Amino acid sequence: MRPTQHLGVEAGDDRVILSGDLVVWTLHRLNAKDDARIDLSALVRLDTAGAWELARRRAAGADLTGLSARHADLLAAVTAALPRAEAPKPAVPTWRRVLQATGRLVTGAGLYLLQLAEYLGRMLAALARTIRHPTRFPLTALVHHAQETGLRAVPIVAVMSFLIGVVLAFQGSEQLRQFGAEVFVVDLIAISILRELGILLTAIVVAGRTASALTASIGSMKMRQEIDAMRTLGLDPDRVLILPRILALVVMLPILGLISAVAGLLGGAVMSWVELGISPAVFLARLADISVTHAVVGLGKAPIFALIIGVIGCHAGMQVGKDAESLGRMTSSAVVSAIFAVIIADAAFSIFFAQVGL
Fold first, then answer.
1. How many CA atoms, within 13 angstroms, populate the side-chain half-sphere of residue 313?
2. Which of 167, 243, 254, 268 could bond to 302 as cystine, CB 3.0-4.6 Å?
3. Position 178 pLDDT exceeds 80
4. What burial class does residue 25 get, using C-beta atoms within 10 Å of its C-beta: 0-12 exposed, 13-18 middle, 19+ buried?
C-alpha cells in the first residue's frame, strides 16, 4: 500500500511555498509553471525524485531558497548525477581523415609484415633445431605435404601451362606475321614462359590451392585446440606443423615450375606447327639458341615464392579464432594476400634482374 504523503503548495506574490513531502508520490501536485522562486523552508521530506524535479527547475532558471543542509546535500548529489549534454565535436577536415586512414593502413601493413617475418624466423629456427637433431625431422609429414601440394597440383599446372603456350603462340603469330618474322614466335614463347609466365602462373595456382589448404588445416586444428594439446604434450608446433608444410612447398614449387615450363613450350610448339607450319625440329633448333639464363632466372624465383606462400598460409592458420566465421575469413585473406605478395615479388625480381643485366 502506498504510504500517506502530503505536499502543500501555497502561491505567494513572487514565490511558491512548498511544505510537507516532496517525494515521487506528490510530484503531480507541482504546477508546471512554478519556475520563478520556490521557498523550501517548510519542506519536511525530500527523495531523489523530488530532488531531480528541483534540479531540473533550477536548471531552467528557478530560484530555490530555504533548503535545509540535509536537503541541499541530496540536491547536490542528484544534480551531480544528472546527464550532461556533450559539446558537439568539431568536424574533422577531409585531409585529416585521409591522412588518418592512410596512417592506419600503413601501420597495419607494417605490423602484418612484422608478423610474417616472425613466422619466417620461427620456421628457420625450427629448421636449425631439426638440423641439430636429425632424428626429430618430420620426414613422413614432409612427404605427405609434398604429395598434397606438389603431386596433386601437376595436372592443373600442366594443362594451364599448355594452354598458355597455345595462346602465346596464336597471339604472337598474328602479330609477327605482319612483319614476316613468324620464326621469332619461338623466342617469344620460350622467353615468356621460361622467365615469367611459367613460374608466375604456377605460383598463383599454388597460392590459391595451397595457401587456403594450409590455413584451413592449421586453423581447424587451432579451433579444436589441438595445437594447445601439442604444446601440453611437449611437441613444438613450429617443427610439427609449420616446418614440413613450408619445406614441402620449397621443394615442390621448382619442380612444378619446370613441369609448367615444359608444358608451356609443348603447347607453343603444337600451336606453332598448326598455325605457322614451324616443325618441331625447327622449333627445337630455334629453342636451342635461347639462353639458359632465362630458365635459371625463372626457376630461381620458385623457392622465394614458396616461402611467401607457405609463411602467409601458416600465419593465417595460426590467426584463426574459435569460430567457423574466422576460419573462412582467414582462408580468403590468405589466398588474396599470397597471390598479391607473389605478384609484388615477381615485379621486384623483374626490376632487380633488369638492373643487374640478367
1. 31
2. 254
3. no
4. middle
Query: Per residue in 174-202, is it b (16+ CB within 10 Å) or e — as a string?
Result: eebeeeeebeebbbbbbbbbbbbbbbbbb
C-beta of residue 37 within 8 angstroms of C-beta of residue 16: yes
Question: Residue for cell digits 607450319?
Answer: 277
Grid cell of 297 as nine digits: 632466372
Would you state the pLDDT for residue 35? 56
Residue 69 or residue 147, greater confidence: 147
On whether the CB atoms of residues 313 and 214 are closer than 8 A, the answer is yes
Contact between 7 and 26 under an 8 Å Cβ cutoff? The reply is: yes
Judge whether 202 and 253 are in contact, CB under 8 Å: yes
Residues 6+ apart with CB under 8 A from 36: 14, 15, 16, 62, 63
Cell numbers given for 257: 615450375
Rounded distance between C-alpha atoms, residue 288 and residue 282, angstroms? 10
Cα–Cα distance, 355 to 188 (Å, whole number): 21
Residue that the C-alpha cell 615450375 belongs to: 257
Q: Compute the average pLDDT of residues 232-251.
A: 87
Phi and psi for 213 in degrees, rounded to 5? -65, -40
Please report the domains of the chain, with CATH numbers, ordered by start residue: 7-81 (3.30.750.24), 121-356 (no CATH)
Stretch (H or E) spanning 22: strand 16-22
Between 89 and 129, where is the model more confident? 129
Contact 72, 44 (CB under 8 A): no
Q: Output the nine-digit C-alpha cell for 136.
A: 626429430
User: How does DSSP classify residue 1?
Assistant: -
pLDDT value of position 1: 45
C-alpha cell belonging to residue 187: 623466342
- The DSSP 8-state label assigned to residue 8 in this structure reads E
User: For the whole model, what pTM was predicted?
Assistant: 0.72
Contact 301, 195 (CB under 8 A): no
Q: What angle do CA 304, 340, 208 make, to 5 degrees?
A: 80
Which amino acid is residue 69, in one-letter code? A
